[in-house]
Structures are given as C-alpha cells and as structure tokens.
C-alpha cells in the first residue's frame, strides 16, 4: 500500500516537473520566434519528448501560449506587487514602484503582443475562456494590492478623496496599457514612461 502511494507520488512529481519544463521551453520559443513561427513540434524537440505528450497537457498551441505567457506572467507579478503594497513608504512612491516594475518586466507589452498575435481566432477565444478562472484569481490579487495602495493614499491625504478608487485604478492600468501599445505599434508616438506617471500622479493628487 505504502509502495503504491510512493510510486504514485513520484509519478505526479515527474509529471509536474515535465509540465514546468514544457512551459519554460514554450515561453522561450514563443519569445524567440513569435506565435506564428512557433510549432508544437519544435517545443517538444527542445524538451526531448513527443509532441503527443504536449497535447496531453494542452489542447492547442493557443492554449499553451496562454498558460506559458499570460497565466505565468500574472502569477509571477503578484508577489512583488504585494511586497511593494505592504512595504513602508508613501502611496505615491508605491504606485511609482509598481509602475516601473510593470514597465521593466514588460508585463503589459507581452500581453499586448500575445493577444495581437493570436487575434480573434476561435482557438484563441477557447483558450482564454478555458483559463480565465486561473488568471482571474491572480488578477484579483493584483487589483487588490493596487486598491490597497490607492485607499491608503486617500486616507493619508495624498490623493483626492472625491475620485472613486476604481476610477484611479482604471486610470493607472489604462496608462500602462497605453504605454505598451504605443511602444509596440506606434514608435513615433512613444513617450517617456516617467512623463506618463507624472501626469497620472498630478491628476489624482489632492488639491490644497
């Protein structure tokens, strides 16, 4: 009985390690070659497994890309954002740190690239729908940390109390998306990130 349990546990561990290797390799290949030029066969070859093994974990290339890039990026970004949220410092300083973290890690620009590359294909829609619960959990934790920072800023007299917290949050995220889109597709209109951050913070700062 104990032996069977140990064997089962070992197999689960090996399966999890293989899954992580697939995701790491897929992220690497997608980053190198882009969505269209990446094949499941190449990912399998680099991992050293058969293509069928990848399909035992993921239903399509779109499904794999959603998990390897979008879902993993969200999981990775939440801990440092929460760390900034709970650290000492003013809310203004914390929003600045989160802003630069997201810019420097290409969090939004990678999401823009992935969504643009996959387009509105039925496969992409199905992949996003199938994984939305996993991403929603990370998205809620991410939004909760930012909401806490903004609420503290309002309570401490840094930010305007009459502007809804949700509006400030939407403005912050919208600014980051705009920066990513212009940098990605409209290089001639690309702006300095710090200028955008300054404009945003001036807009929400409490008036004397």
TrEMBL record:
Record's keyword annotation contains Transcription: yes
One GO BP: negative regulation of DNA-templated transcription
Record's keyword annotation contains Protein biosynthesis: no
Entry GO MF terms: DNA-binding transcription factor activity; transcription cis-regulatory region binding
Domain HTH tetR-type: 16-76
Signal peptide coordinates: none
SUPFAM superfamilies for this protein: Homeodomain-like, Tetracyclin repressor-like, C-terminal domain
Keywords of this entry: DNA-binding, Transcription, Transcription regulation
Residues in the DNA-binding region annotation: 39-58
Stored Pfam families: TetR_N
Alphabetical list of InterPro entries matching this protein: DNA-bd_HTH_TetR-type_CS, Homeodomain-like_sf, HTH-type_TetR-like_transc_reg, HTH_TetR, Tet_transcr_reg_TetR-rel_C_sf
Superkingdom of origin organism: Bacteria
Protein name: TetR/AcrR family transcriptional regulator
